[in-house]
């Protein structure tokens, strides 16, 4: 984010430097938002930005035991509530969410998110999958695609992730993706483990990053 001086000089067109900085920030944010909304494809999966047509799937996902235990109850218990929840996801200018689908049959199986949380300095990556599609490498494949696209985009040298201390599957996946444990942070009434990857390169199973942020 550009820093603005206390005094703002005018250029030949009468536009203040502070105003130019704001315009630059706007187009930078717009560029990042547009870039991150494109579709991603892997060997077995397709990742599409979440749409209103995904409400029924989101309703199922947010009421799975794993979501309720490790993410929390979003009070989304019917289709109208799911539609509103999806719209909230889409309206969040500080978040990107992809629905992960199998190429075969275009079956939705999970979600990858990349968002700015108010208690973190950098954006964090998150993931959630239907229980029937765990232990098959889908989460790693999808999260790797997002991380590698962020490397190509070049605007996020540091990426965070958080998880509850007893979410063993999440911790194993984060470490496999190359994120490193940094510290425990207190958020509300919960302790979360904070992971980070600094200047991530191409994601390979078990590869370590070059350090935390």
Structure commentary:
This protein has 213 residues and is an alpha+beta fold. Helix 2 packs across helix 4 (79-91). The chain has a single domain, classed as Aminopeptidase, CATH 3.40.630. The chain is built from six helices and eight strands.
Give the arrangement of secondary structure elements:
Blueprint: H1 17-36, E1 40-41, E2 45-49, H2 55-61, H3 65-70, H4 79-91, E3 95-102, E4 108-115, E5 124-129, H5 138-153, E6 158-163, H6 168-176, E7 180-187, E8 190-198
Antiparallel strand pairs: 1-2, 2-3, 3-4, 4-5, 6-8, 7-8
Helix pairs in contact: 2-4
Keywords:
about 210 residues, alpha+beta, Aminopeptidase, 5-stranded antiparallel sheet, 3-stranded antiparallel sheet, 8 strands, about 35% helix, globular, disordered N terminus
Residue fraction in strands: 15-25%
Sequence stretches where pLDDT stays below 50 over 5 or more residues: 1-35
Query: Per the principal axes of the C-alpha atoms, what is the gross shape?
Result: globular
Number of helices: 6
A few lines on this structure:
33% of the residues lie in helices and 24% in strands. By secondary structure, the chain is α+β, with helices and mostly antiparallel strands. Strands 1-2-3-4-5 form a five-stranded antiparallel β-sheet, covered by helices on one side. Strands 6-8-7 form a three-stranded antiparallel β-sheet, covered by helices on one side.
């Amino acid at each position: 984010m550009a820093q603005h001086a206390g005094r703002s000089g005018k250029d030949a067109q009468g536009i203040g430097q502070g105003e130019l900085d704001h315009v630059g920030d706007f187009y930078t944010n717009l560029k990042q938002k547009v870039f991150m909304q494109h579709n991603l494809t892997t060997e077995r999966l397709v990742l599409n930005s979440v749409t209103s047509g995904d409400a029924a799937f989101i309703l199922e996902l947010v009421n799975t035991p794993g979501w309720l235990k490790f993410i929390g109850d979003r009070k989304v218990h019917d289709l109208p509530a799911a539609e509103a929840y999806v719209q909230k996801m889409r309206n969040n200018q500080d978040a990107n969410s992809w629905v992960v689908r199998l190429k075969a049959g275009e079956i939705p199986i999970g979600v990858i998110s990349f968002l700015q949380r108010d208690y973190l300095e950098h954006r964090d990556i998150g993931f959630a999958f239907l229980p029937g599609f765990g232990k098959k490498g889908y989460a790693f494949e999808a999260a790797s695609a997002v991380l590698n696209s962020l490397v190509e985009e070049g605007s996020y040298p540091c990426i965070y992730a958080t998880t509850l201390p007893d979410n063993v599957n999440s911790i194993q996946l984060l470490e496999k993706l190359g994120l490193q444990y940094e510290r425990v942070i207190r958020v509300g009434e919960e302790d979360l483990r904070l992971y980070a990857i600094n200047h991530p390169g191409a994601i390979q199973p078990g590869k370590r990053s070059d350090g935390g942020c």
